[in-house]
Amino acid sequence: MPESPEVQALVDFLGERAVGRSIRDVDVVEFRIIKTRARPPASLVGDRVSAASRHGKHVDLAFDDGRHLVVSLGRHGWIAWHDDIAAAADADPPADDAPAVLARIALDDGSGFELTDAGSWVSLGAFVVDDPSEAPAIAKLGPDPADPAYSRADFDRAVVGRRKQIKAILQEQESIAGIGNAYSDEILHTAKVSPVAHAAALDADALDRLYAATVSTVRDAVAARHGVPIDQLKAAKTAAMRVHGRAGETCPVCGGEIREFSLGSTTAEYCPTCQTGGAIL
Questions:
Q1: Which residues are in the FPG-type domain (predicted)?
Q2: How many domains does the chain have?
Q3: Sheet holding 125-129, edge to edge
Q4: What pLDDT score was predicted for residue 91?
């Protein structure tokens, strides 16, 4: 799942390459991605990209006429860049395990990008709106820990006193924007907090550690991903993980074994020694 550090790197990349360029052509392969049927992406042909920004896990391309193309990446969506978009379209069929191309957007200099999805169902969505908040998911976003203005008060409003598992709260976009399964595991490991602990049961010391870990984990990852080519971001993210995706490996803090367990429709990785007092979840 794309999370804020990688989406920020993607936005930075698009800002360097797409801003100042006009849309020459839009080819939508999978029409289910269009969430504003009266204003499809093809309506942007001829308009010039003026800015690229991020809202949580969402990409926002602004245009000279005031409109925005908002791309909600969903669970498996991504954007692939091509210096020669026509050559990419004419290339041999992709491998069976390659992400599906949902739309192809060509720019006036011959470059362009593809909206892709690697899942078994389409999770990516595209909106053409006058204001990004017209996209429902953006309208509901909570404060973002990557934002320098993010405060302890923002964190406390999202967490303190809630009778809900803390890992779920960290991934709840309406409470804290931009964090998904991977970084929530990393945050909880850094804070030495169990993923199944209810927020209401956390004492003041645990809340202090969790706030510090949330801010440092997200901001450090944003800094680390800056400048990484967008086709290498997934690998860079995976390599940086200390516990997420590392079940059966050794905890880099205590030397114990990292464990995995099912949590709702997903999984979580944690260190029993560091986070659960030795208990196996």
A1: 242-276
A2: 2
A3: 49-55, 58-63, 68-72, 125-129
A4: 84
